[in-house]
Design brief:
The chain has 294 residues and is an alpha/beta fold. It contains ten helices and eight strands.
């Protein structure tokens, strides 16, 4: 993947030099909750509410920060440059796509953090993985997740080979922002009220697969505009989508699969919907909510 031609975004909030002091809740509890959420595929989003659980446990003491030294040591921050390039390209493409529908795209901000941080959706930590918070319209990303993709999931062999997979992860979270702007997320929240967990999970799977499809739509248009992909990039991203499917994660963590507990979709579904968006480049092709036999 080549980022030289991609536009840069200035909508990055870099909190990596801040360390959160957890007051009022033991750090051991936070780690355990995070691992449980990771193992079950629970994302601290609008639908499952992992972040809301943590925020209810810590309602009276907002997180405090203590400054540490700059981790880049004065050297060029390659990770921030990469994230800025991917985010900038999503801004250009979604602005154009919204304009085609006579609408205006309002880009989100992206928060880069290390270890833990606060969000309008509650407490966030790296064990939860990247997520989008619709309450403040920000994407939260601890970039150590990318190291986990390579080390834990075996999604790609080298840091360079992982780049488009990392871009796919960012574009997926931007896909949730697009859903929010289109009014999809608020409607899903209303639909989930009163549902049991299995039915609510099925709705979330549809939302997650649509975000995968939207990531494919972005990649389609970005490739036409900037020709930024190298041979093998798409295949590696598909490996990543497969590696983080609910069935693969459940089998890896608990040894068996519980489809009713899926929150992001199976490996096959995630790959299929990313390919759908990538091939079509059309928002209309990403209607996961009316897809037969999803």
């Amino acid at each position: 993947m080549r980022i030289d031609e991609l536009p840069r975004s200035d909508r990055i909030e870099d909190r990596r030099a801040a360390r959160m002091r957890a007051g009022g809740i033991g750090i051991g509890t936070l780690i355990i909750l995070g691992l449980i959420g990771w193992a079950l595929g629970i994302n601290p989003l609008y639908l499952v509410g992992g972040a809301e659980i943590l925020s209810r446990m810590w309602p009276s003491q907002p997180p405090a920060y203590s400054e540490t030294t700059d981790r880049t040591g004065g050297q060029p921050d390659q990770m921030k440059e990469f994230v800025s390039a991917v985010l900038g390209s999503t801004e250009v493409q979604w602005t154009e796509l919204f304009a085609q529908a006579n609408s205006r795209y309002q880009p989100p901000s992206l928060v880069m953090f290390s270890g833990a941080t606060s969000s309008a959706c509650g407490f966030a930590q790296s064990a939860m993985g990247p997520f989008y918070c619709p309450l403040d319209r920000k994407v939260y990303l601890d970039t150590s997740f990318f190291e986990d993709m390579q080390r834990r999931f075996g999604a790609c062999d080298t840091a360079k080979a992982c780049q488009f997979s990392e871009a796919y992860v960012i574009a997926h979270e931007i896909g949730h922002h697009v859903q929010n702007l289109l009014g999809i997320l608020p409607r899903l929240q209303q639909m989930q009220q009163g549902m049991d967990r299995a039915d609510a999970n099925r709705l979330q799977v549809m939302a997650e697969l649509q975000a995968d499809c939207f990531a494919g739509v972005w990649a389609n248009h970005a490739q036409h505009k900037w020709k930024f992909l190298d041979p093998g990039d798409v295949e590696t991203a598909l490996q990543t989508a497969s590696a983080i499917g609910d069935d693969r994660l459940q089998r890896r963590t608990q040894g068996y699969i519980v489809p009713d507990a899926f929150t992001h979709g199976s490996s096959r579904q995630r790959v299929s919907w990313f390919i759908t968006g990538l091939k079509s480049g059309e928002i209309a092709s990403c209607d996961t909510f009316n897809a037969p036999n999803l």
